[in-house]
Amino acid sequence: MKKQPKASHFIDGKYIEDDSGIPIDVVFPATGEVIGRVFAATPAIVERALASAQLAQTHWAGMTGRDRGRVLTRASEMIRERNRELSVLETYDTGKPLQETLVADATSAADALEYFGGMAGSLTGEHIKLGADWVYTVREPLGVCVGIGAWNYPTQIACWKGAPALACGNVMVFKPSERTPLCALLVAEILIEAGLPKGVFNVVQGLGEVGASLVSDPRVAKVSLTGSVPTGRKVYAAAASQMKHVTMELGGKSPLVVFDDADLDNAVSGAINGNFYSSGQVCSNGTRVFVQNSIKEAFLKRLVERVKSAVIGDPLDEATNFGPMISHEQMDIVLGYIDQGVAEGARLLCGGTKLEGDGFFVAPTVFADVTDDMTIAQEEIFGPVMSVLGFETEDEVIARANATEFGLSAGVFTRDLVRGHRVIGQLQAGSCFINSYNDAPVEAPFGGVKSSGVGRENSKEAIKHYSQVKSVFVRMGDVESAF
Ligand code: NDP
What is the pTM of this model? Predict the structure, then answer.
C-alpha cells in the first residue's frame, strides 16, 4: 500500500502496533484507493499512551523553557526542510491539492512550533508589590493534555495543539480523525528526531470512542478538540464532569458581507477563499455571502466566471487547485444539501454535481437567491457550497449575519474603513476579517464565540489555555492573628 505508516500508534518515542484494534483503512479521496491501514487503539494502547505521557511530564516540565523551546524550534526547521514530503503525505491523507498543502499545512505547523518554541523561555509570572509584602505568580503547566483532531488539517491541528501545550511544559496524547491518521504520526517522529523526550507527544488512532476514553481518564487535565458542534457538546460535557480545562474549536456558518463600494474582484477573491479552499472543508468559511443588492448581479457574474476557471483533478498535480471531499460519506452529505437547496428554491448558478470517476469530487457550487430560512443558509455543510444572499442596509445585514447559533468568523468588504470597523465591531464572531478572508497567522488568536467554541488557539492567548496561574503571597513581617 502506497502510504502505509510504520505502525498505527506513536507512544513513548516509538512506533507501536497492535492489530487487535478495529482496522481503519486509509483512503486516498481523489481515487477511492486504499493506501494504508491502521488499527484503532485498544484500551491497552490508550493505557500505554497515557502512562507514558504521565511519566514524561515531570521531567519535561522541569526543563527550562528555553531548552523546551529549542526542541520545538528544531522540529519547525526539520518540518520546513521536509515540507514537500509532508505536503505530499497531507495530500494523500486529505485529498487537498498539493498546490495548497505545500503552502498551508506543514508550513503552518512549522510556524506554530517556531512561534511557541520562541515563546517558551519567556513564560513568566508577575510580581505584585503590597507595601512591604508581595505576591508572585507562577505560570504552571496543566499536565497531560489530550488533543483530538478533525480531518481537514491533520498536520496543522497536531501542531496548533501540540506546540503551545509542549511550550508550557505539558505533555500530549493526540488522536487524529480516523479519516486522516497519517500526518500526526510523522509529526511525532520528527519531534523525537528534534530531541523531544519520549512520551511527551504521543499519537493514538481510533474512532470517537477512543477520543471519549481519553477525555474521561482522570489523569487527563485538559482536552482540546477540533470538530463539529455536536461532538463538542459531548466532549465538553464529559470534560466538565471532571472539571477539566477545555479548548473547543468547532463549526461555523460564517457571514461574509460585501458592500456596494467594495473592490469587486477582491471581494470575489475573498468569497472564493472563504468557500472553496480545501474544497470547502474549513471551519471558518464564510458560507453565507451577503452582497448589497445594487452590486449583486455584477458580483455573481464575476464570481461564476472565476469559479468556472477552477482546475479540478488529481490533487498531486501542482496545477490542480480544487480537490475532492474527504470521503464518500461527506460527498453524499454535501450532495444532499445541494438537493435541499434546489428543493427549497435557491438558484443554482454553477456546480451542484458529483464529478465523474471514483474520487469524491463535488463541483464548486454557487447558489443565488438564498434566503435566511433555507437549510443551506442555516447549517454547516462543510463542502464547496456558497450561498449568496442579497441585502439593502447595514443594520439589516448585521442583524441577519448574527442570527445564527454559530460565531466562528466574519468578514466585511468595503472601501469605507470606518464602516468596515463599525460593522465588524457588531458581528458576533471570534476571528474576523476586513477586506480579506480566512487568513490564519500563528500570531493572531483563533477561535469562536457562541456555539463555535471556547478558548483560543495560536498567539499569546493559547498560552493561557495550556497553563494555570499559581499565586504566592509572601509576608515579610510578623503574622497578626485574633488570638
Ligand atoms: P467530528 O466532530 O465528527 O470529529 C472530530 C474529532 O472528534 C474526530 O477525531 C472524532 O473521531 C472525534 N470524536 C467523535 N466523537 C467523539 C467523542 N464522543 N469523544 C471524543 N472524541 C470524539 O468532526 P469532523 O472530523 O467531521 O470535522 C469537521 C468539523 O470540524 C466541522 O464541524 C468543522 O467546522 C470542525 N472544524 C473546526 C475547526 C476550528 O478550528 N474551529 C477547524 C477544523 C474543523 P473520529 O472522526 O475518528 O470518529
Answer: 0.97
Residue 356 grid coordinates: 465523474
Amino acid (one-letter) located at 465 = H
Write out the E strands in 40-150: 127-130, 133-141, 144-148
- In the predicted structure, residue 319 carries a pLDDT above the cut 90: yes
Q: Is the dihedral of CA 163, 164, 170, 173 positive or negative?
A: negative
Output the CA–CA distances (angstroms, integers) from residue 220 to 8, 174, 213, in the order listed: 22, 12, 10
Which residues is 368 bridged to in the sheet?
Answer: 347
Atom of ligand 1 nearest to the CA of 408: 41
Contact between 60 and 171 (Cβ < 8 Å): yes
Q: How far apart are alpha carbons 23 and 27 in whole angstroms?
A: 13
Which residue in 362, 349, 372 sits closest to 289, CA to CA?
372
Do residues 382 and 179 touch, judged by C-beta distance below 8 A? no
Q: Which residues line ligand 1 (CB under 6 A)?
A: 148-152, 175, 177-178, 207-208, 211-212, 215, 225-228, 231, 234-235, 249-252, 283, 380, 382, 408, 448, 453
361-408 tens-digit pLDDT: 999 999 999 999 999 999 999 999 999 999 999 999 999 999 999 999
User: C-alpha cell of 460?
Assistant: 499569546
Q: Which residues are catalytic?
A: 161, 249, 283, 457
Cell numbers given for 152: 481537514
What does the CA dihedral 323, 326, 327, 332 come to, rounded to 10 degrees?
-70
Residue closest by Cα to atom 42 of ligand 1: 283
Under DSSP, the state recorded for 355 is P
